[in-house]
Amino acid sequence: MKSIAENAAEIRRRIDAAAVRAGRGRGEITLVAAAKTQDADSVRAAVAAGVDAVGENRVQEMLKKRGENAYDGVPLHFIGHLQTNKVRDVAGRVDLIQSVDSVKLAQAVNGAAEKLGIKQDVLLEVKLGDEPNKTGFHPIEIHNVLKEITRFDYICVRGLMSIPPIVESDEKALENFRVLYKLYVDITTDLYDNRLKPILSMGMSDDFELAAACGATMVRVGSALFGERKKKV
Ligand SMILES: *Cc1c(COP(=O)(O)O)cnc(C)c1O
């Protein structure tokens, strides 16, 4: 088995190559280590190997590893489904909440950020397809949702995140990434603070090169970096 450092270098090389093939700059794409189920030592190894950020799915797990200083030196992102009753543990403690999947959650994050006197960066999670156990906004509602959420003063919507459905061919995956890229381009002009670089977070271990080729500015990679997860999450 390869080390986390070797995996990270290989992933970075492949991301850069895909970006260059697509006529984009090397280093334009942020690599987020998806660290669910990984212990603090593994996370530290990923940070030492130069990942740009660490993403966590579970609040308790994040708080535990945070207490072990696992994220020192890199931005921390929340990338899993966030329940409104756990918002207080996340708002202001992470640099980016990637997984805002309802207006109710956005409102809760806004309230928590207001209490802290901060502005919380978030992404809106887009749901493609009709998988019943997945959360997120449908592409057709994004414009209205964005209008509603940009009214919240303590949230800054930086872009979109998605976990497209698993498909059997690269062509179908490509199609999904293209839909997301188009949506991202469409809403970019609506993001009120255009001095900030908009974010399109898509692509995981099996398809980050495809995502990079389709305009992702951020990929979230777990198993290709850390090795297969022991537990299913
Ligand atoms: C686990 C996870 C990833 C990474 O998945 P891999 O296939 O292991 O790379 C990316 N994004 C989210 C939201 C995840 O939960």
Could you characterize the architecture of this molecule?
The protein has helices at residues 4-21, 40-48, 59-67, 103-116, 142-149, 170-188, 208-213, 223-226, and strands spanning 30-34, 53-56, 76-78, 96-100, 120-126, 155-162, 199-201, 218-221. The chain is an alpha/beta fold. It has a single domain (4-225), classed as Alpha-Beta Barrel (TIM Barrel). It has an 8-stranded parallel β-sheet with strand order 7-6-5-4-3-2-1-8. Helix 2 links the parallel strand 1 and strand 2 (53-56). 42% of the residues are buried. The mean pLDDT is 94. Bound molecules: pyridoxal-5'-phosphate (PLP). Pyridoxal-5'-phosphate binds next to strand 8 and helix 8.
CATH-wise, what's the superfamily? Alanine racemase
Architecture per CATH nomenclature, i.e. the level-2 architecture: Alpha-Beta Barrel
Spatial sequence of strands, sheet with the most strands = 7-6-5-4-3-2-1-8
Low-confidence residue ranges:
none
User: Which hetero ligands occur in this complex?
Assistant: pyridoxal-5'-phosphate
SSE-based structural type: alpha/beta
> What proportion of the residues is helical, as a percent range?
25-40%
Any idea of the CATH class?
Answer: Alpha Beta
Distance between the termini: 22 Å
List the domain count as a whole number. 1
CATH topology: TIM Barrel
Number of helical stretches of at least 4 residues: 8
Choose one word for the global shape: globular
Rg over C-alpha atoms, rounded to the nearest angstrom: 17 Å
